[in-house]
Structures are given as C-alpha cells and as structure tokens.
Description:
Oligomer: homotetramer
CATH class of chain A: Alpha Beta
Order of helices and strands of chain A: EHHEEEEH
CATH topology of chain A: Thiol Ester Dehydrase, Chain A
CATH architecture of chain A: Roll
Structural class of chain A: alpha+beta
Distance between the termini of chain A: 19 Å
Number of strands of chain A: 5
Largest sheet of chain A: 5 strands, antiparallel
CATH superfamily of chain A: Hotdog Thioesterase
Radius of gyration of chain A: 15 Å
Strand content of chain A: 25-35%
Shape of chain A: globular
Strand order of the largest sheet of chain A: 1-3-4-5-2
Amino acid sequence: xxxxxxxxxxxxxxxxxxxxxxxxxxxxxxxxxxxxxxxxxxxxxxxxxxxxxxxxxxxxxxxxxxxxxxxxxxxxxxxxxxxxxxxxxxxxxxxxxxxxxxxxxxxxxxxxxxxxxxxxxxxxxxxxxxxxxxxxxxxxxxxx
Amino acid sequence: xxxxxxxxxxxxxxxxxxxxxxxxxxxxxxxxxxxxxxxxxxxxxxxxxxxxxxxxxxxxxxxxxxxxxxxxxxxxxxxxxxxxxxxxxxxxxxxxxxxxxxxxxxxxxxxxxxxxxxxxxxxxxxxxxxxxxxxxxxxxxxxx
Amino acid sequence: xxxxxxxxxxxxxxxxxxxxxxxxxxxxxxxxxxxxxxxxxxxxxxxxxxxxxxxxxxxxxxxxxxxxxxxxxxxxxxxxxxxxxxxxxxxxxxxxxxxxxxxxxxxxxxxxxxxxxxxxxxxxxxxxxxxxxxxxxxxxxxxx
Amino acid sequence: xxxxxxxxxxxxxxxxxxxxxxxxxxxxxxxxxxxxxxxxxxxxxxxxxxxxxxxxxxxxxxxxxxxxxxxxxxxxxxxxxxxxxxxxxxxxxxxxxxxxxxxxxxxxxxxxxxxxxxxxxxxxxxxxxxxxxxxxxxxxxxxx
Lengths: 144, 144, 144, 144
C-alpha cells in the first residue's frame, strides 16, 4: 500500500476546487448517489486541476504520458443526493521519483461528504513506467 | 434514421440468448434499473453472440475492424429490478453494403421487459468507413 | 413505437442549451466517448431544462411524480472525445394526455455530433401511470 | 480510517470466488478497463457471496437492512482488458459490533490484477445505524 497522504477536512487546505452536480443516473435504489460514482468525480476534479494549471490532460496524453491509477481510497462520511452540487477540493502531494498522490475533500455547502486519495504513476501509451515529468513538481502543494 | 429492423416479442424468433444478472450499481432512486444501463447490456449480448459464432470482438478489433454504433433505439416495457437475470435475445439482420442492424428482446422468466435495435457500420481504428467483412453475412438470420 | 418527434439539426430551433464536459471515465478503447454515456447526458440536460423553468426534478419527485422513460433513440453522427464541451440543446414536444417527448441536438462548436429523442410518461412512486401535470403544457415548444 | 483488513494475494485464502467478464463499455481510451469499473465488480462479487450463503441482498434489504459502504480501497496491480474473465475472490472479516470488512483478490488465470477492501455498516432504509444482524457472524472467515 503506497497510500500515505491524509486528506484534510478543511477546505482552506486546498488551493483548487471543482464543482460537480450529481446526476440522476448516478443514484441507486437506496436513494443516494452510488459509491462507485465518486471515483469518476475524483478523476474529473483531477483533470480540472491539471487543465486549470495549464496542463490539459489530453495534451499530457498527446505528449505520451498517462497518469495510471495505482490506488484509490474513498471514505464516505455522509451520502450525496441527486441534484446536489459537490465541491471537490483537490491537492497534489507526496511526489516521489515514480509516483504522486492526490487528496480530495468533497463538500456540499461546507459539509464534508467524503474524503479520498488516489496514487498515480507516469506511464507511456503501452503502460510502461516513465520518468515523472518535471512540470509536475510545480503543481505540488508545499504544505500537502 | 437508418433504423428499419423491428424486434420480435417472441423469443423463438431469436437464435441466440445471453443471460445477464442486473447489478445494484445499475439501480436508480426509483428503485429500478436505470434506463441507461440497458445500452451496455445490448453491447454485452452482441459481443457474446459474436464470440459464440467464432468471432470474438477483440480478435475482430485486432484484425482492424470496429463496429461503430450509428443508432440505438430502446423501448422499455416493464422495469428491470436488482438481482434479476435478464435473458437478452439477439438477432442480426438488415445487412447492407455498409451497415447491419441488431435486434434485441429482453425477457425475465419469459416476460418482455424491453426491446431494442442497434445500427452499426464497419470502421477502421481511425473511425473511417470500411467494407463490411464477408463473414458477417453468415451470421445474419435469413428470417430476420 | 411511440417515437414521433424529429429532432432538428438547427440549434436555433431549441430554446434551451445545457453544456456538459465529457469525462475520461466515459471514453472507451476506441478512444472516443462510449455510446452509452450519451444517455445520462440527455437526462442531465432534461433535468437542467426542468430546473431552469422552475420545476427542479427533485421537487417534481417529492410531489409524487416521476417521468418514466418509455423510449430512447440516439443517432450518432460524429464521435465525441474526452474533454470536449458538448452543447446539449433540448426541446419538449408531442405532448399527449399520457406522454411527452424530448428532442435533443448535441453540438461541439456548432458541429452536430448526435441527435436524440426520449419518450416519457408520468408515473407515481410505484410506477403506476399518472395524469400528466398541467404545468408541463407550458414547457412544450409551440413549434416543436 | 477504519480500513484494517489486508487482502491476501493467495486465492487459497478465499472461500468464495465470483467470475465476471469485463465489458467493452468499461474500457477507456488507454485501452484498458477503467479503474472506476472495479468498484461495481466488488459489489457484484459481494452480493454473489451473500446470495451463495443464503442471504440474497434483495431479501436482506426487504428485511430492512442495507449495508452502507463506509470505505473503499483498491490497489491496481496489472490492468484488466476487454473480454477477460476476472475471478473475484471474496472473504468477510474484521467484524465489529457496528462494521465488517470485505477483502477481495482479482485474478485472471491466476495472475493478480488487483486487491481491494471495503468497509460496511448496517443501516436502515433511512440510513440510520442498525445493529449488525447475527447471521453475519457465521459468514466471517475465522482466519480472515
């Protein structure tokens, strides 16, 4: 288990936030957003952060790099419901020569709904490990 | 609209059937299987038919052909529920030089739940139109 | 087949548009957005139209009405790709005493990518047919 | 973080296995099964174990109990590809008065592809904590 980053419950510890409105297709028979739907939310917010910082994910991929997902950990605090707007706070941290981690805090109107961490490696189009691109270092929060 | 095939409500009109158990992740807040979940069921049953007839879809793709989806039409008759085993009856028909159509009947214990039609074209890996492979003709039902 | 509405290819024929950014989770091994992902896009745009007109779908549901999906028809013109912003143009039409239809035009930078139609009935929480609520009439385009 | 169970890499440590064939709809533009698709696989295998042991999940729910998901952790070892049959090995463990954990090993032809753990609580239909049903104790592996 490479997972080492501990996501903060304080939105102020995150420098980027990406709002996502939940979809009815993502609800389940318990009347809440199904727990598997959170994983694409994380990816969506991660891609938004890269786009915002000047590295749109399709350009990163066009340059021959994919960020493979090595681990995902989600902790569900309170359910999300249909038509809620979730603020997904994102921060990059725990950069090593081969991996980096992303921490997430999901809130609705400042109430914590979930936290999450994903661990990533840089790979080429065939899935082989690559050196982490230099520009990534600049995206990592000093405090994270 | 290329859609021309009319799917029969009689399972006997189909020579192939693929059973699929519904997943909890596919339910929605109405307590039923969400209508978008049916589209992967169709694809799954279509792939099973190709595999059964000796043309696994990954081999078809490795040979340079993808069957792009041009149209999808689903008619929902009665809802599907969690943990039901759906018999997806499949038949190929309406083959032209550039397209073919697939008809579907979804039943649970012989009760019709939905019918569907998909229209397909052969394309290469870059999405450009290809001649329909000859072997496909042998898979088309004479009566369909 | 109740499907009767023909969706226009002209954005000007639609009074409402809802932008959706495609997600990487929605891509498939052909490198494009998987055809099943369009169905939640339609639902998302439909819910946005109801919200915009003053009838948020969760309030409609809380009032005891669900709009069951009877039919879905999607016509795929050109593929959608990851990170594109799709303008989903929506219009309501073909209202009868028991059903209404919704037409969709999906464009990216004014290029048509897909059109679609969904057919709906009003049902209660147990799935039984309900009278169509009166307010729906006001949402139907005269020209649609 | 309640996560405490460490999933074994040895299939012999699991008393139940549920095979799942991957779907094309679950692939992504990297040509592999998207990492979010694993979460429904886990749920599917979990439901199969409960069904196999005489507690079908729809009966459990009808009796007023839902097993809410508190945490999910997935570790991706080697990618899954389209049309592979994944053996999802499952074991229940770490039962407390309010939670239990489920460990998973995903293999294809005995090669490890992923491991995972989920943490669950018993809740009623409104999401309030419930006492863990007694029968669950009998499903927990002594060694797990």
